[in-house]
Amino acid sequence: MHVEPTDRFRVIIRMMSSNKPKQLLDRLLKLQLLESDEAALDETAENQIQKQIAEVRLQIPLPMLNHYDRLVARGKKGVAAVRHQTCTGCHVQVTRAMVMNLMHGDDIQVCENCGRYLYLSETDASASPKKRKPGIENLPHAA
Ligand SMILES: [Zn+2]
How far, in Å, from the CA of 110 to the mean position of ligand 1? Predict the structure, then answer.
């Protein structure tokens, strides 16, 4: 199966956008949600949705949007959650480094197997080993 050259792709996104990767992913997710709801609505509501879709699309860098559209054109979802370190789009395990990156939210992650954009599911996000109880570092030091 052909997989996009994701590294080059990430660099393009970084160059093109001053937005935080997390915000961009949120927009992609919103777009996916809007586009999946579209079919079930009457005409007036559909026009509203179309307007929202157009607005969200304007806020997403073109390379990212193109990649998303290619996935959708193949009948896939463009964005998939990572649950238990596994891509819910193709059920293949993702690397630990990818999960860490998702936790930090400072990079766009694409599944190496299916090419979907990845975001961390609630369960995995709250299981972050990075979270520590605050206050330990604030203990007074003996002078
Ligand atoms: Zn996948």
Answer: 8
